[in-house]
Design brief:
3 helices; Porin; 18 strands; 448 residues; 18-stranded antiparallel barrel; mainly beta; single chain
């Protein structure tokens, strides 16, 4: 790593001259006066469902999410490194139904392709500059009593291929840096459902979660000590559900998933946490009231680790609780509240062990008018690691945002988030792993 790429300390006073905070008044005035009336001269074609670009300027008070520097001498400083971040986010969506001659009466109700990019430039921590490319595909249809859906999200992150090892000096900080490094991710879900005139239905489901980390693998000895290694990991499952339509809008169901998790082993280590699992679920989905939508599932996950001798986890067979939920309440015409949750067992990206992955989020949105809205959010992420790891980390994030739409084309956003990383283990045995982070951003969006 050259000196020009090392993270440097900065403060709010070090904002670049190109900062959107400096240019915002001029850009807003230009947008308002010009009106971005391109759409007035050309109608958006049927195949183009979305075309937009967002420019955002943010200040991150702790890019690496740590208040401690690596213990080894000669490594770059990571503690409290702040930076201005300029992010350019183009987005385009294509409705492919017209291209294939599919009209409104076709069995194919959705056939789309999309691209969303985030090109993030870290002015005072250039190792974290990256370009994130997200390609999405959706296919949905129904014919008689048979319906199907296929959703896929493929992500490529064009970032650096090396990062400093500081996982033991931070609760959750290393996860943020990992997501900015070179990698592939893929998330896919397929559903085939059979309905008839009875209140019962049957469906088959399959899902894929895949991470291919491209960071360099360096044995942590000699001159390579202090550099972080990440391994590939994946979760695949397939199963079926039997459901009962209790009312027109609410369904109850019970299901089963057979799945596999894989965690690549480091070249110099035999440790991996590959496993097979049998997951039994019960769930409820639909609208409990016109204003209340719910999708909830929970059940035991019977896990068998395929190589007990080389598994980082203690013991070969375990039973874990799996839960996943989403609840949305439109409490009024101007207020909505959404709660999401997922708890499951997952393999670590460092290739050492597995952990209990917990996520909770509560989001509130209020519309002052058709043009002006505000949002508040609380999120809690938890990682409870299995032996031999000695980590139990939580990350709490509190956020607020404002959005003003000048017209259908131009919108201004302002967002703030405060995060606290907390170590839930003995602070004396594992000192200094807590950190706090503040991110303030201002964005300008134009949509065609």
């Amino acid at each position: 790593m050259t000196s020009s790429h090392l993270p440097k300390r900065s403060s709010a006073k070090s904002a670049p001259n190109s900062s959107l905070f400096r240019l915002a008044p001029r850009l807003i005035a230009l947008a308002a006066s010009a009106g971005f009336t391109i759409a007035s001269y050309a109608e958006k074609p049927d195949f183009l469902s979305e075309l937009s670009i967002t420019v955002k300027e943010a200040h991150d008070s702790s890019v690496f999410g740590t208040e401690r520097n690596p213990a080894l001498a000669g490594l770059p400083e990571l503690a409290n490194v702040s930076s201005w971040v300029t992010t350019v986010s183009p987005k385009v969506g294509f409705n492919l139904r017209p291209a294939f001659g599919l009209d409104k009466d076709s069995a194919i109700s959705a056939f789309s392709f999309g691209y969303a990019g985030d090109y993030a430039f870290y002015h005072s921590a250039t190792t974290e500059t990256n370009q994130r490319h997200n390609f999405t595909q959706q296919l949905k249809g129904k014919s008689g009593g048979v319906s199907f859906a296929l959703d896929n999200s493929f992500i490529y992150v064009d970032g650096k291929s090396a990062t400093i090892q500081y996982g033991l000096t931070s609760a959750y900080g290393t996860a943020s840096s990992r997501e900015r490094k070179e990698q592939f991710q893929d998330r896919a879900k397929a559903i085939l459902r059979f309905d008839n005139e009875s209140p019962y239905f049957f469906r088959t489901v399959a899902s894929v979660l895949y991470y291919d980390l491209k960071t360099q693998l360096r044995q942590p000895v000699g001159s390579y000590a202090g550099w972080q290694n990440y391994v590939d990991r994946q979760d695949l499952n397939i199963g079926a559900d039997i459901g009962y339509k209790a009312t027109k809008d609410v369904s109850l169901w019970a299901g089963y998933r057979y799945g596999k998790q894989k965690q690549a082993a480091l070249p110099w280590s035999l440790v991996q946490n590959n496993s097979d699992y049998n997951r039994f679920l019960v769930g409820v989905e639909g609208k409990l009231a016109p204003w209340l939508k719910i999708d909830l599932q929970a059940g035991p996950d019977y896990r068998s680790y395929t190589d007990g001798a080389h598994s980082g986890i203690n013991g070969k067979n375990h039973t874990w609780l799996y839960t996943e939920s989403s609840i949305t309440a439109d409490v009024s015409k101007t207020d909505s509240l959404t709660f999401t949750n997922k708890i499951w067992h997952w393999v670590s990206s460092t290739g050492v062990t597995a952990y209990r992955d917990s996520a909770y989020a509560l989001a509130y949105k209020h519309k002052f008018s058709s043009a002006f809205s505000a949002s508040l959010g609380v999120r809690a992420l938890g990682s409870d690691y299995d032996l031999p790891a000695t980590r139990k980390d939580w990350l709490y994030t509190y956020s607020a945002g404002l959005r003003y739409d000048f017209n259908k084309q131009v919108a201004l956003t302002a967002d703030y988030a405060h995060s606290n990383g907390e170590n839930k283990l003995n602070a004396i045995a594992f000192p200094g792993r807590e950190f706090s982070q503040d991110v303030l951003s201002l964005g300008l969006r134009y949509a065609y």
